[in-house]
Design brief:
Blueprint (H helix, E strand, L loop, with lengths): L2 H41 L2 H22 L2 H15 L4 H33 L4 H30 L3 H25 L4 H18 L15 H11 L3 H21 L2 H18 L3 H12 L4 H28 L1 H6 L9 H26 L6 H18 L5 H28 L1 H4 L3
Helix pairs in contact: 1-6, 1-10, 1-11, 2-4, 2-5, 2-7, 2-9, 2-10, 3-4, 4-5, 4-8, 5-6, 5-7, 6-7, 9-10, 10-14, 11-14, 12-14, 14-16, 15-16
Length: 429
């Protein structure tokens, strides 16, 4: 056997091990989260599930707002510090943690002031709204630390520990959902608090053994400034895209009723089936891309990873088109007959998956000079869609989501292709 053949054989065995480890743990973790959500969909009254959906839309927004791309920036700084051999990556990690905690404190005040009123405006009781608010704040607090610790483990090539931490968190969340259903305590706020407990478990289990230095004992100012400078061209876009995750739920709350909120939330849970693949981006693809110094090989791997995501997402869209009732059966009788809406959700999730991959690569390579232009185009299209589409129906809300995802993907792919072949046009130093 030739040396090239042996090299290819070793590479195949290595990737078989990487992917089997991912799919045997990450898939179980995400399936546990989906299963917990399905328990809530099937057993919570429609009104309670609408409150649960509204609360998680705020968690999504709050989490993005506390991040604004800073966690992904660590991949860029890891690449720089390992390639150039200058600086300590842990200083950048601690700087990002301090920035995210500062953003959390500001966001927590806003959530405490706004969410109870938002819930009351849709007819939910004050006590339930306040308890759900507490769950929102706790969930985001734990998620901040969990996400940074898990990423740090993966960049250090300690995938096993990161997988075990997330698997334990997913299993705990599913267990707590089962307890809530079996006990008959069918309250939305309990589901939100269960998510907070699970996030806390991940943060605890993902703590590295060498995490002994206190950030407060060092001057992190220069590192915070470098992170902020890196984020500067993308901050307007990051603020805008923080709204994108919960936007459809908020439009449902604005133009529709409780039923629309619940339907969007329930169908979006099925869209997370496509999201099973999203973990590959941050868990496997980006850390490995960060370790590739050769530009030609980096470009080849970018297209290979993207092609794998495209093929898998297309298969799920086809399955939703051919057998929608099998998917809807999981949601229970409250949400039957939403065949077209299901296809819209899964298709939008597929586009968002590919968009997320392109966005993360662009951020990791600092190809962010055009982000303001992309943002302006995206805002303009969505404003036109809001004006033209009657958003009182769940179908039109989800069509809005699909069209928005398609444009976002197009803009990010144009940026990525420019970065590969004319990097000076899009690079922000």
């Amino acid at each position: 056997m030739s040396a090239v053949a042996l090299l290819e054989q070793r590479r195949l065995r290595r990737w078989a091990g990487i992917l089997s480890a991912y799919f045997s743990t990450q898939t179980l973790t995400q399936l546990a989260g989906i299963a917990a959500g399905l328990l809530y969909i099937r057993f919570l009254p429609v009104g309670e599930f609408a409150l649960y959906t509204l609360a998680f839309s705020v968690i999504t927004f709050f989490t993005f707002l506390s991040d604004l791309g800073s966690t992904t920036s660590l991949i860029h700084f890891f690449h720089r510090t390992t390639r150039e051999g200058t600086g300590d990556f842990r200083d950048f990690s601690d700087a990002v943690l301090s920035l995210r905690r500062g953003a959390f404190l500001v966001g927590a005040v806003a959530v405490l002031a706004v969410f109870p009123r938002m819930a009351a405006a849709k007819g939910f009781g004050l006590e339930d709204a306040l308890l759900a608010t507490a769950g929102i704040v706790l969930t985001v607090w734990f998620q901040i630390r969990a996400s940074l610790r898990v990423l740090g483990l993966r960049l250090a090539d300690r995938y096993g520990k990161s997988y075990r931490a997330e698997l334990a968190g997913g299993a705990l969340r599913l267990l707590l959902a089962g307890v809530i259903v079996v006990s008959g305590l069918l309250h939305a706020w309990l589901g939100v608090l269960a998510a907070a407990v699970a996030a806390g478990a991940v943060a605890t289990l993902a703590r590295p053994e060498d995490e002994t230095r206190e950030a407060g004992a060092r001057d992190l100012g220069p590192y915070r400034r470098r992170v902020l400078r890196y984020l500067l061209p993308t901050l307007p876009a990051a603020l805008y895209f923080a709204v994108q995750g919960p936007l459809v739920v908020w439009l449902a709350a604005t133009f529709g009723g409780t039923r629309n909120i619940a339907e969007v939330g329930a169908l979006s849970r099925l869209g997370l089936v496509v999201g099973l693949l999203s973990g590959l981006i941050g868990t496997v693809f980006l850390p490995r891309l960060a370790r590739i110094p050769d530009e030609r090989l980096y470009r080849i791997r970018f297209f290979q990873f993207g092609g794998a995501l495209l093929a898998a997402a297309a298969a799920l869209v086809l399955a939703a088109a051919v057998a929608p009732r099998l998917f809807l059966l999981l949601l229970g009788p409250h949400y039957s007959g939403l065949d077209t809406e299901l296809l819209l959700v899964v298709s939008a999730s597929a586009l968002s998956l590919l968009d997320g991959y392109a966005v993360n690569v662009n951020l990791a390579r600092s190809w962010t000079r055009w982000q303001s232009v992309c943002l302006a185009v995206q805002i303009a299209l969505q404003a036109v869609l809001v004006a033209l589409l009657p958003l009182e129906s769940t179908g039109n809300l989800l069509l809005f989501n699909l069209l928005s995802a398609g444009l976002a993907l197009t803009l990010q792919l144009v940026t990525a292709m420019t970065g590969f072949f004319r990097p000076a046009w899009v690079y922000w130093s």
